[in-house]
Amino acid sequence: MMATEGGYRWLRGTMGRFLALVVLPFAVVALYLLLAASDRYMSETRFTLRDSGAPNEPMSLDLGTLIGGVGGIARQDAYVVRDYILSYDLLARLDAELGVRAAWSDPAIDFVWRLPADASEEDFLEYYRDMVSVSFDTESAIIAVTTEGFEPVFTQTMLAMILAESERLVNAISNQLAAEQLGFINGEIEATAARLKQTKGQLVAFQNEFEVMDPEQQAGLVASVIAQMAVSLAEDRAELTVLRSYLDSNAPKVVTLRNRIAAKEKQIDAEKTQLTGGDERLNAIAARFEELRFEVEFAHEHYRLALMALEKAQIDASRKVKSLVVVARPNRPDEALYPDRPYILATLGAFLLMGFGILSVIVAAIREHME
């Protein structure tokens, strides 16, 4: 009789624990899932960022450094977009346009997933980040964004606005980069134009000061004159030698020729002095002129390159330096993916039974030890 009563107590105790630890929690969760839990729909979009300079490759704007298959700048741009999607700035725009807070605070939503009507901004943002997820594939450079909601159309509409706002951000970054580039190049053009004007002014002032258009050309002419006079002088000296062989040194012909030779020697010395002597010698003037002309040519080339860079920058600005390319647009879900009731109940049942079995073993071991 005592053995039967002890067995009954043990059975009653086991059944009680089973009901309390397995059946009751399972029943509560099952009732919630089957009767109260609100269906949650999911919409997904996929896009990537590309550079207009390399339309067939994932954006790699300076790209030179490849990390994990994607340029470092492309990775940074993707993270900028991701952080913006999860930011309060975007959430505020979504709430202003779509009334996100009111939609998620609808009393028709079950109490577990409903956003409290008096939720703080921090709680609102945390709730938003639970409903929106962003992932970035470093191999394919594709950004995937998913949103959850309690109504298919609203879920798709919210994700479509997230996509549009992301594209607006990318366009704003692109326009800002283009504006900064154009501003820099315009500044360079102004500086190079001023430099070109200054060097030209210096060249003209130099020419006016020395009253010469091209010192190099003039020096060449002087050298040519000296050479011709040297030939003529040599001929006169030869003729003088011949005359002195049969005429007196005071003969009119000899005197005339000697005077002519002296005049030519003086002229040659003067021309040589002009070419190579004194502070205003032609070779020094020509060297300085060459420096000034080189500065003008350099400034002109710099100005030409700046104009070419401006033209290229304007062409790039007419395109998009960066652009968002949609791979898959937000879909309108047909059926709720969450909560996954069979999976949750099966998993919960398995864990409850496992826990009950472990607890039963522990209780039996304790009881056996006490007996």
Brief overview:
By secondary structure, this protein is of the alpha+beta class. Helix content is 69%, strand content 10%.
Description of the structure:
The chain has 371 residues and is of the alpha+beta class. The chain contains ten helices and six strands, in the order H-E-E-E-H-H-H-H-E-E-H-H-H-H-E-H. The chain has helices at residues 2-36, 72-85, 88-98, 100-104, 121-131, 152-210, 215-244, 252-276, 282-318, 341-370; strands at residues 41-51, 66-67, 70-71, 132-137, 142-149, 322-328. Strands 4-5-1-6 form a four-stranded antiparallel sheet. The protein has a two-stranded antiparallel ribbon with strand order 2-3.
**Approximate shape:** rod-shaped
Distance between the termini: 18 Å
Beta-strand percentage range: 5-15%
- Can you tell me the residue ranges where pLDDT is under 50 for at least 5 consecutive residues? 54-70
How many strand units?
6
Q: Could you state the order of secondary-structure elements as H and E?
A: HEEEHHHHEEHHHHEH
Judging by the overall fold, what is the CATH architecture of the largest domain? 2-Layer Sandwich
- CATH fold field value of the largest domain: Bacterial polysaccharide co-polymerase-like
Give the averaged pLDDT, no decimals.
79
Give the % helix. 55-70%
Please, how many domains?
Answer: 3
Structural class: alpha+beta
The rounded Rg comes to 48 Å
Strand order of the largest sheet: 4-5-1-6
Number of helices: 10
CATH class of the largest domain: Alpha Beta
Largest sheet: 4 strands, antiparallel
Blueprint (SSEs and pairs):
Blueprint: H1 2-36, E1 41-51, E2 66-67, E3 70-71, H2 72-85, H3 88-98, H4 100-104, H5 121-131, E4 132-137, E5 142-149, H6 152-210, H7 215-244, H8 252-276, H9 282-318, E6 322-328, H10 341-370
